[in-house]
Amino acid sequence: MGLWSDMGQVDIYDKWLRQPLEKYGAVRIWFAGRWNVLVTRPDYITDMFRNEDLYAKAGSQKKIPWSVIASLVGDNIINSHGETWKNYTAIMKPGLQKTQFDSKPILAQSRKFVDVLLKVQEDVGRNSGVLVNPIIQRFAISAMGESFLDIDFKCLDDPNTRINELQNIIKRTIFKPLYFNFPILDKYPYIFTSRRRAFAIMHEFETLLDELVRTRPNKLSRKEPLAAQDELVVHMLERALEEGKMTKEGYLANLKIVFLTAHENTQQLLNSMFWQFGHDLTFQDKLRAEVLATGVTEPTPEVLNKLPYLTAIICELLRVYPPVSQLINRVTLEPANLGGNINIPKGTWVGWNAPGVHSDPAAWGPTARDFIPERWGDKPEDIMAKYRRETVRGRFIAFNSHSRKCLGQGYALLELKMCLFELVRRVKWTVDPGYKLKLTSGGILAPLGCKVRFEELDTGRISEKTL
């Protein structure tokens, strides 16, 4: 629908989808060149998530294998099914779902992130807003690289790194509404020269990422094998490739999907956070009071996980602004009866819309569309219990659910907590008065072009002794 209008996706949902989906729980929708079934009713979603062998995961590599997006993501741990998925999961799960991520690189990158924001604010002047998305992306790529791929891409040091530039190009290319809705056009790159260039960009990204990881300084300088607890997912992927447990094609597809998803979700949620906290300072002020009350400048996961408002506010951000807003990447392997009510033919693509689920009064009450962190509780253990409970019930699907839930969600929560802790400790921000909220029209959910004004706080100054 973004092809025909300049509306944001929440407005599109409100105008065309909210009424039928809140009434029936599922609708037919045209997407990626075919009719699909889109679901928002929690019991239907739970039925779909629990029955993996009926509603099988199958992404663009199966749906539109000739497309630009299929050349980007390939057959990976997120979109594969059956034995292929089991193999990828066995290899990668220990690195994606570590119980103890090293938080020091995340803290270091968070500090550098705040430094860059303040430097850019100084450069543009106190009466001008800072365009935050490009800087957030540089932070998210840098933090992800150290935590998963054993490399600092140094995007915060240099905004012109090619790997960062390619992400900007890829996002503009992938989410063009015309090709998103009519991927059949990707079959004719000799006619549509922009698609020929798009395929070339996807190939360049794959080649560059492979080279950067293969020649990373940590790998070349390491003389002793890593202890098992220190291994990252990249080490597991490399060993699987060397041992013949994964093809080179599978290795590259999974390397790319780790890079893409492990920075993109954080990036877009932080975009939403800057908007939400910058136009209503109540949330920012309350969080800052909780953070400063700790007296801590070197937060550890243990410190972060004891902060109830920090935990609740991230849960509410994920509920109101789920970065992956809609995903249609399952296909029925046999005729299905969804939730005992809706007959779906074999070979039908089905998916979900997270903002629709999260804003339905039937699931979240009359305040479903309001930003209220307190709805999650006031104790960290109670908040996370509700988080898990609502996920299982299909009412909170920011990280999917059941057997195909996001394996990296623990890392994402830690990164967000660390970054928010450092931000509110060191700076105060307001949305630039000239900025008017406009959400993306499709794909990832986030504000477009948000500009923010930053002010450094005396409470955030770090002494040399602390460092």
Account of the protein in words:
Helices cover 52% and strands 10% of the residues. Residues 462-467 have low confidence and may be disordered. It has 467 residues and is of the alpha+beta class. The strands form three sheets. A five-stranded mixed β-sheet has the order 1-2-8-5-3. A three-stranded antiparallel β-sheet has the order 4-10-9. It has a two-stranded antiparallel ribbon with strand order 6-7. It has 20 helices and ten strands. The chain has helices at residues 9-24, 42-50, 60-63, 68-73, 82-96, 104-124, 133-148, 162-174, 177-181, 193-214, 217-221, 233-242, 248-279, 281-293, 301-304, 308-320, 354-358, 361-364, 380-392, 409-426; strands spanning 26-31, 34-39, 55-57, 130-131, 326-332, 336-338, 342-344, 349-353, 427-431, 451-456. Helix 7 crosses helix 13 (248-279) and helix 16 (308-320) runs parallel beside helix 19. The longest helix has 32 residues, at 248-279.
Mean pLDDT: 95
Distinct helical segment count = 20
Give the helix proportion (percent range). Answer: 40-55%
Strand content: 5-15%
Structural class: alpha+beta
Summarize the biggest pleated sheet.
Answer: 5 strands, mixed
Rg, rounded, reads 22 Å
Note the run of SSEs as H and E.
HEEHEHHHHEHHHHHHHHHHEEEEHHHHEE
Q: Overall 3D geometry?
A: globular
Strand order in the sheet with the most strands: 1-2-8-5-3
- Beta-strand segment tally: 10
pLDDT < 50 stretches: 462-467
Note the gap between the termini.
51 Å
